[in-house]
Amino acid sequence: MSEDLDQVYGQLVKRSWQRFDEQRMAREVDDLLVGAVVTAMVAEGNVLIDLNSDGNHHHLRFEHPPTKSRVLFRLTHVTGDVLAAKTLGHYAAVQMGYGEQVQDARTVWQALKSEIKSGFLDVGEPGVMTVDADLTTSYVYVQVELLLDLAPYFADQYTIKYPVLQQHLAAVRQALAKYLRGRITTTVSS
Amino acid sequence: MLQLISKFKNNAEARESKDEVLIGEMVFTMAYQGCPTIGFQAGTDLQYVKFKPVQDRLLHSLTIVLDRKTGDSALQQAVIGSKATLTFVAEVKNYIADPDDLVHMFKTDMANLFRNPWMGDIKLDHQLNSVTATKKQIIDIDKYTGANAESRELLKQLLIGTMQELREKLVPYKK
C-alpha cells in the first residue's frame, strides 16, 4: 500500500514538472531570442555597447566600428505565459532603430522633428518610422516598431534559425538606413 | 517624440561600454558552443546572463555575473586597466520524487556538502533541488574584447574551461 502511494506521488510530481517546464519554456523564449540577436549582430561585425534588461523588457545597442553606425533593439515579450502563447503564438513587440553620427546634429534634428505637430498621432503603430537624436553624441536615429512572431526564428526549443534572423535584422536595418539617409539628404538640401 | 534612445545610458566613451562588449562576446562565444541564453538581468551595477548547456545531460544552467571593478575613468584605465570579476555559477538540478530517495540524498551527499563546501577555489552549495558550484575570477577585460580570432579563442578557453571545471565538481551530486 505504502509503495503504491509513493508511486502515485511520484507520478503527480512528474506531471507537475512537465507543466512547470511548459511555463518555464514560455518565459525563456524572449531571452533565447535576445541572445540570438546579440550573436547574430556580433557575427556581422557589430559590438554590443549597451544592455539593459529587467528580464521582461530588453534593450540592446550595437555599434559597427568601421562605420560608427548604431543599431538599437528593444524587445518586449507579449505572450510570456503558456495560455497566451498557446492562444496567440509567441510574439514580441520589437522596436528597432538605426543611427548615424552626423555633423550639426542639432540642426538636422530640429528640421526633422518639426514635422510632428499633432499630439494625436500614434507613433507606436507598426511600420511607422520616426526620428530622434542623441545630441550629446551627435547621432540621429530612425526607428520602427514591429510585432514579430517568434516561431519562425526557432528550429526547436533551443535551436535558432540564424539565417532567418539575420535576414530579418538586415532587412529592417537597410530600410531604416535608407529612410534616415534620404531624410537627412532632403533636409540638408532644402 | 520617441523613447527608445532614452532607455540607454549615454556611453560617449568606448571604455565605459567595455563590460557590455564583453557580455556580447560571451553570448556570441557560448552560442557557438551550444549554450544559448535563457536569462538576462542587466542594469548599471549588475550584468548577469544565464546559459543553457543544451547537450549537457548533467548541467541545468551556467550563470555568469559580471562585476566591473576598475576602468570607468580614463585615469583608472591608464593606471590599472579594465578589471572585472566574473562569477561563474554552474547548476545541477535533481528531479527526485521518491521521498525515500530524497531522505537518502540529504543524509549522504548533502550532509558531506554542508560539512565541507569548499573544493579549492570552488564553493559548492545546495538549495532545495539544486546543487551549485561557484567560482570567481578576476580578468582583464581588454584581453577578451578584441573581437578577433585570438581574443575569442582566449574567451572560449576561459568560459568553457571554467564550465568544465565546475561541472567536474558537480558530477557526484547529479541523481
Structure write-up:
The complex is a heterodimer of chains A (190) and B (175). With 190 residues, chain A is α+β, with helices and mostly antiparallel strands. Chain A has a single domain (29-189), classed as Yope Regulator, Chain: A (2-Layer Sandwich), CATH 3.30.1460. Helices cover 45% and strands 30% of the residues of chain A. Chain A contains four helices and eight strands, in the order αβββαβαββββα. Chain A has helices at residues 2-43, 82-88, 105-113, 162-189; strands spanning 47-53, 57-64, 69-77, 91-101, 129-134, 139-149, 154-156, 159-160. In chain A, the strands form two sheets. Chain A has a six-stranded antiparallel sheet with strand order 1-2-3-4-6-5. In chain A, strands 7-8 form a two-stranded antiparallel ribbon. The longest helix of chain A is centred in the N-terminal third of the chain and has 42 residues, at 2-43. Chain A starts with a helix and ends with a helix. Chain B is of the alpha+beta class and 175 residues long. Chain B has a single domain, classed as 2-Layer Sandwich (Yope Regulator, Chain: A). In chain B, 34% of the residues lie in helices and 28% in strands. Chain B contains four helices and seven strands. Chain B has helices spanning 18-32, 74-79, 99-115, 149-170, and strands spanning 37-42, 47-51, 61-68, 83-93, 118-119, 122-127, 130-140. Chain B has a seven-stranded antiparallel sheet. In chain B, a hairpin with a 4-residue loop joins β1 and β2 (47-51). In chain B, α1 crosses α4 (149-170). The longest helix of chain B is centred in the last third of the chain and has 22 residues, at 149-170. The radius of gyration of chain B is 19 Å and the shape is elongated. The relative contact order of chain B is 0.16. The mean pLDDT of chain B is 84. At the A-B interface, α1, β1, β2, β4 and β5 of A face α1, β1 and β2 of B.
